[in-house]
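Exam revision sheet. Question 4 asks you to relate a sequence to its structure. Input first:
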Amino acid sequence: MNNDEKWMKVAINEAKLAMKENEIPVGSVLVQNEKIIAQAHNQPIKNNDPTAHAEIQLLRKAGKEKENYRLVDSTLYVTLEPCAMCFGAMIHARIERIVFGASDPKTGVCGSCMDLNKENFFNHKISITGGVLDKECSELLRLFFKSKRL
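Answer key, structure tokens:
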């Protein structure tokens, strides 16, 4: 198992916590120098906050932990391809690398619906790797939405 898979497993555990809270199962973890800075999961329903995606929750926690809104030299692992809101926040935080599991054909902006990283209007570029433990990440989402349709 490589390091990307190792950290994605931590994000998957966070996604499972979201599912237990009846939230869409998306989890994330921020790693810097092979150490976890923060981890979080989706909580928009619990918090009555449309911005409480796993990545935003994570960036808030990491900023407090580092006492800095810039999170340079860090890698953000997330079980689902980021949306535009989350990607924009990662740009502002100066995340070095995004690693995601499942692609999101509805709202993903790291290559599925569009690739915001290729746009020239951002003053920061992020290295992106997708598809890490894709099957495990996708299966959590499939199970969650299947349970909603019963």
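Marking note for examiners. The beta strands are 27-32, 35-41, 75-80, 97-102, 127-129.
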